[in-house]
Automatic annotation (TrEMBL):
Annotated localization: Lateral cell membrane
Organism: Podiceps cristatus
InterPro entries in alphabetical order: EPCAM-Trop-2_C (IPR049420), EPCAM/Trop-2 (IPR043406), Thyroglobulin_1 (IPR000716), Thyroglobulin_1_sf (IPR036857)
Superkingdom field: Eukaryota
A Pfam family this chain is assigned to: Thyroglobulin_1
Keywords: Cell membrane, Disulfide bond, Membrane, Transmembrane, Transmembrane helix
Lineage of origin: Eukaryota, Metazoa, Chordata, Craniata, Vertebrata
Entry's Gene Ontology molecular function annotations: cadherin binding involved in cell-cell adhesion
SMART domains membership: TY
Membrane topology: Single-pass type I membrane protein
GO CC annotations, alphabetized: bicellular tight junction; lateral plasma membrane
Domain Thyroglobulin type-1: 2-74
Protein name: Epithelial cell adhesion molecule
Chief place of localization: membrane
């Protein structure tokens, strides 16, 4: 049984963030659709290029390095072993039924995308967020098993209303009630951490870092100026007292 202290800590963490934190090496697909180079087996080539610009990808075809020139070396196709699908449903008065929700998504993923159920690690509901974890190590994957990267690609398009299935759109119905999603994000965790530099940070994140640095510098400047002013005031007071003493002595 988990201790009360740890349970309370977990509950407080959930209430502050509103959803489960992502692993530190999880990253999103910031490039979207591109024309990939594929192996004869249908898998992605480790190195992808667009003209003279090249980058390395994982088994999901998602860029995991900065973009470089054509001399870039991508030694191996790094496997994505964990995919986190996070959805946010539209505002509603009552939360969804957790058990019905889990049942729906597990059955949908196994039946519609033919993924073995053992690769569905968890389905977590933290209103209004639904998080689905797909985990598949290369050692566990059989030759005929569907890859979790393929499932995530189909699933994301289905939820966003851009189904790849011909005339067969996915309708999310929980307890006979249609559920509408406002946002869907897919995170990828590779067996080897990605190799992004500061250059690959989004402009928004860079802006936040710059604001923080400016705030720190401004705080230091204010502190120094305040101390200098206090020092001047002390000197002035000492000078006035000395002059008063001289006047009394005279």
């Amino acid at each position: 049984v988990t201790s009360k202290c740890l349970l309370m800590k977990a509950e407080m963490t959930g209430s502050k963030s509103g959803r489960r934190e992502k692993p530190k090496d999880a990253f999103e697909d910031t490039d979207g659709l591109y024309d990939p180079e594929c192996e004869n087996t249908g898998s992605f080539k480790a190195k992808q290029c667009n003209g003279t610009t090249c980058w390395c990808v994982n088994t999901a075809g998602v860029r995991r390095t900065d973009k470089h020139d054509a001399d870039l070396k991508c030694g191996q196709l790094v496997r994505t072993t964990w995919i986190i699908i996070e959805m946010k449903h539209a505002e509603r008065n009552t939360p969804l039924n957790t058990e019905s929700l889990k049942k729906f998504f597990k059955e949908t993923i196994t039946n519609r995308y033919m993924l073995d159920g053992r690769y569905i690690s968890s389905v977590l509901y933290e209103k209004p967020y639904i998080t689905i974890d797909l985990k598949q190590n290369s050692s566990d994957k059989s030759a005929g098993d569907v890859d979790i990267a393929d499932v995530a690609y189909y699933f994301e398009k289905d939820v966003k209303g851009d189904s790849i299935f011909h005339n067969n759109r996915l309708n999310v119905s929980i307890d006979n009630e249609m559920v509408r999603f406002e946002k869907t994000v897919v995170y990828y965790v590779d067996e080897i951490a990605p190799e992004f530099s500061m250059k690959s940070l989004t402009p928004g994140l860079i802006a936040v870092i710059v604001v923080v640095i400016v705030a720190i510098v401004a705080g230091i400047v204010v502190l120094v100026l305040t101390r200098r002013r206090k020092g001047k005031y002390v000197k002035a007071e000492v000078k006035e007292m000395n002059e008063m003493h001289r006047g009394l002595n005279a």
